[in-house]
Each structure stands twice: as structure tokens, then as C-alpha cells.
């Protein structure tokens, strides 16, 4: 259940009081510092079981919840899993789908693209990492009075919020993995989520293992990803 995504009975618009402008030199330095920090982020597949303070996860989720969304409907739900037995069941469900993917569903071209990353159907990190966050997109919002409103631009909204979440967790000192077994309907059943919610990402969160290895890959240059007109 949810409320309307606007403050009912209050003014439709209010003065912008949260924006903070910086001198240009400081802007440049802040942009450099953010880039230097975010470029350290790596997707990892080897985690420790070391506990993570729940408050860190909660604050990162609060940050994700500030993301822009279609009509401000905020069509997302974050199901946070730390229970060992539930993580075991999620691993079982994910590995079932992954075995089918690697054996029958994936064309050879797709498997060739994944080969440099060293992925396969075995997903021990789903049990080892202290937290799993299943990110669901909501086709509709069910209000407190039982009525429903349609949500718009759900995939785009989910993608932006997931980006906020990954950046927030990295900023806090944690590693993540965006795991996307397909299909992921088993998550609805295991996490008791309604049928109008679709799982998009299973985010694995924790500390990287001391001997963690990552693929020796790079990112495209600015000239390859951007055009200025």
C-alpha cells in the first residue's frame, strides 16, 4: 500500500531551497573528485560473509529513493535479504535459471560475450554476501484506500534508482554485483511480492574477499561515449 506521490492539501509548488551552487573552480574539483572515486568501483563476484551495518544499507536505499521517476510515482520496491535460509533458496532458484540459460537459452554469441568475465551457472556469492537487494518495478501503485494508479516509465525509473543505489553503496565502502538471472519470477514467490511487481535486478552487497580477483577490463573513453554540439 502507498500514498499518492504528492503532498495532498499543500501548495503544488514550493521555492527551491535545497540547491547549492559552488564557485566554478570548486565545481571542477568536486567533479574530478567524484569521478576519481566512482572509477574505483568494480563489479565483484567474490565476497566475504562479514556483516554490514544495517544503517548503511538503509541510508543507501534512502538515497536510491530520491531518484527521479516517471510522474514522480517512484515505481520501485527494494526487498532486502540477509536471512541465510532465504539466501540459500534464492541461490537455488537463481542457479536453476542460470543452468537453463547456459545450457539452452543463451545463443553462442551471448555466451562468447560473457566468456571474458568468467561467469557460469554457479552463484555462491548469493549465500556468502551479507545482503541481497532485489529491485522490483511496479506496473501500478496500490493506494491506501485500495485504488490503483498506473505507473509510467518504469524501466527507466528503476534503472536510475539502481544507479543511485550502486553509487551510494560504493561511496559507503561496499562492493556490489548486479545479478540478473532470467527469468526472475521465483523472487516474487520467495519474497512474497505481488504479481504487478517485476524483479529487474538482484543486487549483491558486501565486502570483497581478501583474495578477490576481477576481470582486467576497462571503460570506454569520453570521446567514445559522448558528443558535444
The main sheet orders its strands as: 1-2-6-5
Q: What is the terminal separation in angstroms?
A: 45 Å
- CATH homologous superfamily identity: NADH Oxidase
CATH topology: NADH Oxidase
Helix content: 25-40%
Question: Quick one: CATH class?
Answer: Alpha Beta
User: What is the overall pLDDT average?
Assistant: 94
CATH architecture level-2 label? 3-Layer(aba) Sandwich
Provide the number of structural domains. 1
Element-level helix/strand string = HHEHHHEEEHEHEH
Provide the structure class: alpha+beta
The total of helices stands at 8
Strand content: 15-25%
User: What is the general shape?
Assistant: globular
Query: Main β-sheet, in a few words?
Result: 4 strands, antiparallel
Number of strands: 6
The low-confidence parts are none
Rg over CA atoms: 20 Å
Domain Nitroreductase: 38-207
Protein name: Nitroreductase family protein
InterPro entries: Nitroreductase (IPR029479), Nitroreductase-like (IPR000415), Nitroreductase/BluB (IPR050627)
Keywords: Flavoprotein, FMN, Oxidoreductase
Q: What would the keywords be for this entry?
A:
NADH Oxidase
Can you walk me through this structure?
The N and C termini lie far apart (45 Å). The strands form 2 sheets. This protein has a 4-stranded antiparallel beta sheet with strand order 1-2-6-5. The chain has helices at 24-38, 54-64, 84-105, 108-114, 125-128, 154-172, 185-190, 222-225, and strands at residues 76-81, 131-138, 140-142, 148-150, 175-179, 197-206. With 229 residues, it is α+β, with helices and mostly antiparallel strands. The chain has a single domain (44-209), classed as NADH Oxidase. Helices cover 38% and strands 15% of the residues. The model has no long low-confidence stretch (mean pLDDT 94).
